[in-house]
Queue: 2 jobs
Job 1
Amino acid sequence: MTQVVDRRNGIESAEPAVDVEALGEQLLGRWASVRRQARDLAARPELHKTEGLPHTGHRARVSGQLKYLVENGAVHRAFPSALGGLDDHGGNIAGFEELVVADPSLQIKAGVQWGLFGSAVMHLGTGEHHKQWLPGIMSLEIPGCFAMTETGHGSDVASIATTATYLPETEEFVVHSPFRAAWKDYIGNAAIDGLAAVVFAQLVTTGVNHGVHAFYVDLRDPVTGEFLPGIGGEDDGVKGGLNGIDNGRLHFTHVRIPRTNLLNRYGDVAPDGTYSSPIASPGRRFFTMLGTLVQGRVSLDGAAVAASKVALKAAIQYAAERRQFNASSHTDEEVLLDYQRHQRRLFTRLATTYAAGFAHEQLLQKFDDVFSGAADTDEDRQDLETLAAALKPLSTWHALDTLQECREACGGAGFLIENRFASLRADLDVYATFEGDNTVLLQLVAKRLLADYAREFRSVDFGVLARYVVGQATGVALHRTGLRQVAQFMADSGSVQKAAIALRDEESQRALLTDRVQTMVAETGAALKGSHRLSHEKGAALFNRHQNELIDAARAHAELLQWEAFTEALAGVADPGTKRVLTWLRDLFGLSLIEKNLSWYLMNGRLSMQRGRTVGEYINRLLVKIRPHALDLVDAFGYGDGHVRAAIATGAEKARQDEARAHFRSQRASGQAPVDEKVLLARTAAARKN
Amino acid sequence: MTQVVDRRNGIESAEPAVDVEALGEQLLGRWASVRRQARDLAARPELHKTEGLPHTGHRARVSGQLKYLVENGAVHRAFPSALGGLDDHGGNIAGFEELVVADPSLQIKAGVQWGLFGSAVMHLGTGEHHKQWLPGIMSLEIPGCFAMTETGHGSDVASIATTATYLPETEEFVVHSPFRAAWKDYIGNAAIDGLAAVVFAQLVTTGVNHGVHAFYVDLRDPVTGEFLPGIGGEDDGVKGGLNGIDNGRLHFTHVRIPRTNLLNRYGDVAPDGTYSSPIASPGRRFFTMLGTLVQGRVSLDGAAVAASKVALKAAIQYAAERRQFNASSHTDEEVLLDYQRHQRRLFTRLATTYAAGFAHEQLLQKFDDVFSGAADTDEDRQDLETLAAALKPLSTWHALDTLQECREACGGAGFLIENRFASLRADLDVYATFEGDNTVLLQLVAKRLLADYAREFRSVDFGVLARYVVGQATGVALHRTGLRQVAQFMADSGSVQKAAIALRDEESQRALLTDRVQTMVAETGAALKGSHRLSHEKGAALFNRHQNELIDAARAHAELLQWEAFTEALAGVADPGTKRVLTWLRDLFGLSLIEKNLSWYLMNGRLSMQRGRTVGEYINRLLVKIRPHALDLVDAFGYGDGHVRAAIATGAEKARQDEARAHFRSQRASGQAPVDEKVLLARTAAARKN
């Protein structure tokens, strides 16, 4: 903490200062150099979204931009080094995420080509497949589709109805869509560009359905662009956003493909039709094959954080300049950012963005550990799945909320496309339901929490419980299988009483947040106890009666993960001024969570009425403390004009105010300023009195 | 309540039934016939939004649609009967609101032409103005602008900087924009179509500024479409939505207009420059002139409700059909609408939509009373302003929230433009900040609440307070100046204790909701006591420290108004089955409000911990009760296919499922169905055991 010049008023103060550069470096994280390269690309006009294009023009532009990415070596990091890649999985995702600030359609279309289509060939295929197709996929000679989702089945992939039936006579598979609901739907690259697809279908051979497998299927004649025989489709048309991507539907009518087009890493069919797999359990095999999908969720999590950062930079910059200046006010009035409500609207979201960013960095590291093979057990993969399923819903919903609040905080100007909030929000909208619907993902997390809880307490005795409570009371964050441990709540444990004493204390926040997750899981677990002994229908009905609280518990768990990530990141901050300001921001995040769920803490006796009433007041005090550092905190995100590209965040507002001020000053000096009628009336009234 | 056939399963039950037709009639309200005419128009393809058009094409289409409205006599209801209108102010708004379901751009562009531009000439001008311009405005021969907002001033109209300075020599006003921040901004019809404008400017004559007045200014040559000398502008370009409207900027460089172009109903300038006005107080004069603006807020409130209704009809219809059907399930699984979380997401918003709809009908009646002259005192006008300022923020935010939740509840399909949620949401986004920013409007409401509170207790004695409490305890809703009365809270009053006993009781809900508003206003009032004796700066700072709670109090007040409107509407329901179901829905609305603010009720001792824990449970029970009536409740909105126009709400989903089911049935019957590998493994394992 040093004496610093306050950037608002030039007055020296004892305020702590944020070391913007060092904080920016920390935010860039482990893949800082990749992010810098990707941001350099994302700042180039060639990659920027042209607003107002019809969807046909937007699609053409993004297709061209994909070639630009290839030419600039931006998209091959995850591929094998033997083929010109870098075997760098974490870096690959980091680079993709940053593209969102150029155009979310570009990020997602690149994700379809290399992250889904190419990745499926790489991870589900074997040597020959790699040799045959990866070079063309990498170079964009083969634009392709990831044809999994069907009209009749969104998130329930195991139930897709497309079949691939083996014919030993000709050593071919017959790919077939048996009815309309089995059409592949919402498939990127399907409407126009896709020459081939990885098609997910039920593999049937010798009368047995071996479940969902992936097949490489040529779709279109590369010369004419026409569908090949037996293949048809429809254009999904205009969407609420991401209109640079040609989503479409695909259907297959007895389409024959060679036996060797089965991507056979996890399941193969011999020429005579015999099925074999290195994974005996069909369930585990399915889970393994779908595991490669997790990278989509990871990159959406990161992209959502990036979009939130850009929006907050623009809105906070503008709010720090905009004032309702008028002719009669000789002194400057407050800027928008000085208003308490405005601070509430923007700073709480700034705090959440920091938390989500730190949590994303942890997710990305875990992803890299698994995909690089550094830590690649079944348990690691499950933990990664659960972590991504917990964080992606929160960050994508947060991005939509932040973009909307920033847009409203900038008034009508926020709605102009030149200021980008509305454009980014429209494009990111679907992030909440694709690559796993957010609500469905949170249910997966809830089921995992319940399973962990059940496993832990299968053979429970008092000694174990006692150790649990001690573990918490001393503030030790217990980890198991990548999740914060859940345990039975003890209402009278010391940690909670402590929480009631000082809300701003780190351990108190942790105790309150952890306790809520544990208690919610334990209570739901107790309510569902014995449900496996019920009939399918009754069990489902019991589960349904607790669905809402289960999802709330999963959300509470994910919020705790974000809070823990923020707190762990604080430990890595060296500069004391930065640390102090970031601690306020972390406290704001923690207390906002507690405020949001205050009724729970009160109803369950975790906070007293008196203590509850202090939460809002303390948040208001934190807003005032953070105010002088708000610009530093958004500058540390490291996004420049080429990324923010919002007309209102360029200083234009301040220039207009300076001009207006100069006008009124010169008018007053000239003596030509008209007298206000109200002033005149007051003078007349005063004269009458005398 | 009669024995009815449950539409889901055809089984007779003792469930109450909703009389859809009678409820639909009640929802249409006082202006039912106008709404029917307008809906007939809105269902015509000529008026529908063509999705995916670039903004230039969309603008041209909407311009043409305005002519269609003129030809079909849809937009002249508010104009004088002498000129071919109907002098029907309430009916006029009712008709406009319904246009939102055809295309929100059409609603707003029509609102600019006739509701703002034409209305300003009518309400602010006098006989000669009406004769000269209204016929051309009505016929669309003169497309025009309402040029009030400036870049430098959004909601603060009193501070606009454009001047109109009177020159007695030539009997002209000189209209001038002195600097960039004084440009008119975000003006509908300004970029392309506007031939004239009502320009708001500071009226300066004989060296005195008489404040904001309205002037009729020709903008463009009607033949060439070029700006007239001294006038310039810019196109606002693409926006986040409403791209059928050509918003733009306008600036004036010493533009001379005849003296008689001053719309002089509330202020006039004689040839020699002498100013006169029928309203002595400049403040009251300003308020009166701006009063005509309220109709914009009223119609946005109604349009937001209409859009919410259409969205809920589509999403609930789809959720009642969609199931995750798969080959192995021989019985039908639950549809989405049977899931607790899905019910929470949609039914709570359905309840709020009913409440907002009933509240809107009251607002529209009050509007008609004022504008027809039936009840047109200053106090009536102020009440109308406050009521509109309270309801418009809630309904417009609610529409955005509902459209988004419906879109997510329909998954990726909800994001396709063919299902309209994303399109409507984009168009309605700006409703939250135009015609008065929602946050600013709620602050106006809060100030009014504080003023009423201060006036009531200026000379307070114990007897008055006692009467207040008695008034509440007996459930009498006290009205004064159109607002529910605020009074000091007495924690131990009988009404609150009663509330803790039975949350589903109407009087208990009223007591809890009313008490919260009263207490919040009283507490803030106490905190701000004496602020008028502070310096301007210190007073502002004190106010700012309570800004957040003030806005929360205004919101609580508006929610109470919605709850009261719903409750009053219940009294008008004759059919007992309908009344019972609607009472559940009203309870769901009331309890959702209490749940949202549960921490307040707990912290302030209004609800016990035990009672608090029952709120969520009771909401869950209400969801189950409402489930069988959900389709009836959205059908009662009375919107047909031509209004909903969502591909997923046409029964297509059910048809696809029937086809898939028939396929699997015939496959099983033929004996050709492949055996599932999992089934095979289970059989093998069983065989080994034997």
Note: Residues 1-12, 459-500 of chain A have pLDDT under 50 and may be disordered.
Job 2
Amino acid sequence: MKILIVYAHENPASFNGTLKDLAVETLTQAGHEVKVSDLYSMKFNPIAGRHDFTDLSGEEFYKYQAEQSSAASTGRFARDVQEEMDKVDWADFLLFQYPVWWFDMPAILKGWVDRVFAAGYAYGGGNMFDKGLLKGKRAMCSVTTGGPEAGYPDPDGNLMRNVQFGRLYFCGMEVLPVHVSFSAAHLDDAERQAYLDSYRKRLETIETTKPLEYPTLAEMGLG
Amino acid sequence: MKILIVYAHENPASFNGTLKDLAVETLTQAGHEVKVSDLYSMKFNPIAGRHDFTDLSGEEFYKYQAEQSSAASTGRFARDVQEEMDKVDWADFLLFQYPVWWFDMPAILKGWVDRVFAAGYAYGGGNMFDKGLLKGKRAMCSVTTGGPEAGYPDPDGNLMRNVQFGRLYFCGMEVLPVHVSFSAAHLDDAERQAYLDSYRKRLETIETTKPLEYPTLAEMGLG
């Protein structure tokens, strides 16, 4: 498979950095091709705005989402957005590595989603959920938390729903269950190693792991 | 009351801009003092990082959250962060105006939370939820959505929980129910006016509206 890792952590020596390095190593050894978008190193701009487009549509009233749709149909995305879309197009599998901050992605990664999963490119015109425009791809998140496991019962449901259901599946992707390293800043060596071992096993089985089951558009009464 | 409006929309002519202007006008007329953090106009940097601090703590291993705690105890936040903290300190009431993107805040506002609701300043050392460090303040969100109301049953629960419970209440604030303008981009004039009227009523009653009921730390078994 062709795998894009989207990685959001400032410190390469962090546990997030270690998990990202483990993924590159494990997936490459398994014969996959791997690219990494290291958002902090790239100084990725997370602010959505007019600078996302090489030219505007000319509509009198500027609407960001409408500009995205227009840009998608005529190829007018700014270079930094288009480069990420090219990587997404190339990839069969998207792997997100980030620390959970305030029950969601750090802003630098949230802004990657805002700008790259653009209307007309990743979804739109009734094409969402099982009809999303990134259909055929798979995705998975590997996250760390500040707090212990007890604070996050059913992480696939309560912690990750907005990301997994509302973003990845919304755009049509099959979503593998999240791998969570709880209390990442407070682990002893044995606990760190246990998370690295469990993550390596998840990485070695991404082709056979069963995706989360979500309802179709029709089942939600929207289709 | 002293009210800080944190506003995240690129286009002043948008419905979000109109709602923000309505809030400034209505709250001022009611005798409140109002300040606005207009994040797009300010070109607020949403990326959390070393630049958040005038000096680092000197710890060998750089950890962002630990640097926040250290900076909070010795006053070493960078100017853009400190200016927002000064406004939060000044305010009795925080009002957030933004469009819901991907079930959460636009990245420019998510990054405001990442950087301004810092460890040691807004929470930390066991001080969270009913013991959060912003205790005594109230907060409320006014949001717009792309989709219709049917897609968001129980907005205070399913749409806004991460923001209202996981951020505002986590830092100790009382949270008033969200005001949602659904399908903001597809309203006719009468529908727009109905949302403006209902929002004005909410603004006129912020001193008497009952906050959402959330469990205390002790009730969650964490205290």
Note: Chain A touches chain B at residues 10-11, 13-14, 40, 46-50, 61-65, 101-108, 110-111, 113-114, 117, 146, 151, 162, 166-167, 170, 185, 222 (CB under 8 Å).
